[in-house]
């Protein structure tokens, strides 16, 4: 009876209990800029299933409840390894159009989006005014005279990233945030390349013991990460447990989350 109750919790309850986790950091390049913190909502690993409209609506509502200045979407909008196992981009459009942020919404690609067809997701996002990124670097001009370099690295699940594909830093005087669906990008990053890397993919383990120790390595990552912060090769990594489920439609002691990052 206890086992059945735990299974029902992991299947029907915990995957719907979306948490909002707050994090904060200071950018030394902005120390002389007297402006409110930049508030960023971070969400990844949606794994939208064909009949997952209720969960999709919940995800978008939770993101908007954070009242973000900017939104980062970290990939795996598609679910599974076939189109039949995933919500279609044209259906997902009805949910992603709920997202609004005055300073922009930026989306990178995950490994499951490659299975479905990244161009279809990219076109859907572009039609909504969400900027899809693929090995791009942007210079953003923010209120209060602040500048921010925002870069992306394509997902390397099928084709390994080469060092020459990594974005170059514009200037050490400008904060640099790098978005990468998979945090395993760290071996290629020279110290000082970025002030912060933001990733998803790991699901936080998805099925864990109390205290967060994963029972299985769902995402096959090569390194054990801590959540939400890790430090690798001298670079801070902010890693979200993500929203959806992969392989098994279960979450246990690892609830779905969005992260709200405030940068001062």
Q: Count of DSSP helices?
A: 5
Low-confidence residue ranges: none
Instruction: Kindly give the count of domains.
Output: 1
Order of helices and strands: HEEHEHEHHEEEEEEEE
Shape: globular
Helical residues, percent: 10-25%
Question: What order do the strands of the largest sheet run in, or round the barrel if closed?
Answer: 1-12-2-3-4-5
Describe the structure.
With 264 residues, this protein is α/β, with parallel strands linked by helices. The longest helix has 13 residues, at 53-65. The chain has a single domain (2-263), classed as Purple Acid Phosphatase, chain A, domain 2. The protein has a six-stranded mixed sheet with strand order 1-12-2-3-4-5, covered by helices on one side. A six-stranded mixed sheet has the order 6-7-8-9-11-10, with no helix packed on it. 19% of the residues lie in helices and 23% in strands. The chain is built from five helices and twelve strands.
Short summary of the structure?
This is Metallophosphoesterase. By secondary structure, the protein is of the alpha/beta class. Helix content is 19%, strand content 23%.
Features:
single chain; 264 residues; Purple Acid Phosphatase, chain A, domain 2; six-stranded mixed sheet; 23% strand; globular
Topology:
Elements: H1 2-13, E1 19-25, E2 38-43, H2 53-65, E3 70-73, H3 89-96, E4 105-107, H4 111-116, H5 118-127, E5 131-132, E6 137-142, E7 146-153, E8 176-180, E9 196-199, E10 229-232, E11 235-239, E12 257-263
Parallel strand pairs: 1-12, 2-3, 3-4, 4-5, 7-8, 8-9, 9-11
Antiparallel strand pairs: 2-12, 6-7, 10-11
Helix pairs in contact: 3-5
């Amino acid at each position: 009876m206890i086992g059945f109750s735990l299974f029902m919790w992991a299947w029907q309850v915990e995957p719907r209990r979306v948490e909002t986790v707050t994090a904060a950091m200071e950018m030394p390049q902005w120390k002389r800029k007297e402006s409110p913190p930049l508030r960023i909502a971070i969400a990844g690993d949606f794994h939208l299933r064909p009949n997952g409209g209720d969960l999709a609506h919940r995800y978008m509502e939770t993101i908007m409840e954070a009242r973000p200045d900017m939104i980062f979407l970290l990939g795996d909008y598609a679910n599974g390894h076939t189109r039949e196992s995933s919500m279609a981009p044209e259906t997902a459009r009805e949910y992603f159009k709920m997202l609004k942020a005055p300073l922009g919404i930026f989306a990178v690609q995950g490994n499951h989006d490659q299975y479905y067809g990244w161009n279809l997701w990219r076109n859907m996002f572009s039609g909504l005014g969400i900027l899809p990124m693929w090995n791009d670097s942007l210079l953003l001009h923010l209120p209060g005279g602040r500048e921010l370099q925002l870069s992306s690295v394509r997902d390397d699940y099928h084709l390994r990233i080469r060092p020459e594909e990594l974005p170059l830093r514009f200037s050490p005087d400008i904060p640099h945030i790098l978005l990468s669906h998979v945090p395993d990008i760290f071996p290629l990053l020279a110290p000082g390349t970025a002030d912060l890397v933001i990733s998803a993919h790991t699901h936080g383990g998805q099925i864990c013991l109390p205290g967060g120790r994963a029972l299985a390595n769902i995402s096959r990552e090569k390194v054990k990460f801590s959540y939400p912060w890790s430090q690798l090769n001298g670079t801070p990594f902010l890693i979200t447990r993500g929203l959806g489920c992969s392989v098994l439609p279960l979450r246990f002691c690892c609830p779905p989350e969005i992260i709200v990052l405030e940068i001062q």
